[in-house]
Design a protein that fits this description.
Layout: E1 7-10, E2 28-31, E3 36-38, E4 43-53, E5 58-63, H1 66-71, E6 81-83, E7 90-96, E8 103-105, E9 110-118, H2 151-162
Length: about 160
């Protein structure tokens, strides 16, 4: 069931048009247009040769592929990356090589996955005082506060903050 139309322009005949591989796939693969060598501890752009027209009200999220993520943790520099519906440039995936060996990306290699997701735009309203925001049980408690952290956890965090870590 394909209910969202995404127009695709191939900049080069070798560019591979994305496709879902199973009926239950949430993501589709992006492929490298050219061979790219990513040196250790460096970041390189990997062109796909594709320009996509994402329908208004949607975004394209660029995410790591699980197999590559296992081998090269955090390899996509801006993950998940967002491609807005009004962008009409080439989809380029910036990859990081966290290893100490060269990473050879070959033409046609699957380098990332894309997800088409709905978006909403918010209206922002300035309030004069913090008390004009609705109260919640959580309040201003931040990192780790919803996971049942204990007072000893809070003390440890406060000690780390005080120590400058």
């Amino acid at each position: 069931m394909n209910d969202i139309l995404v127009k695709v322009f191939r900049m080069e005949p070798e560019a591979i048009v994305p496709q879902y591989h199973t009926d239950g796939s949430a993501g589709f693969d992006f492929h490298a247009l050219y061979d790219v060598r990513v040196f250790p501890a460096s970041i390189e752009p990997v062109p796909t040769g594709l320009i996509l027209e994402i329908p208004q009200g949607f975004e394209l999220q660029i995410r790591p592929r699980s197999g590559l993520g296992k081998k090269y943790p955090n390899y996509i520099t801006n993950s998940p990356g967002t491609i807005d519906s009004d962008y009409r440039g080439e989809i380029i995936v910036y990859v990081r090589n966290p290893s100490n060996k060269w990473w050879e990306i070959k033409q046609g290699d699957r380098i990332a996955q894309g997800i088409i997701a709905p978006v909403s735009q918010a209206e922002f309203k300035i309030v004069a005082m913090r008390s004009h925001l609705s109260p919640t049980k959580r309040g201003a408690k931040g990192f780790g506060s919803t996971g049942g952290s204990t007072d000893s956890d809070s003390k440890e965090v406060k000690q780390l903050i005080h120590a400058g870590r």
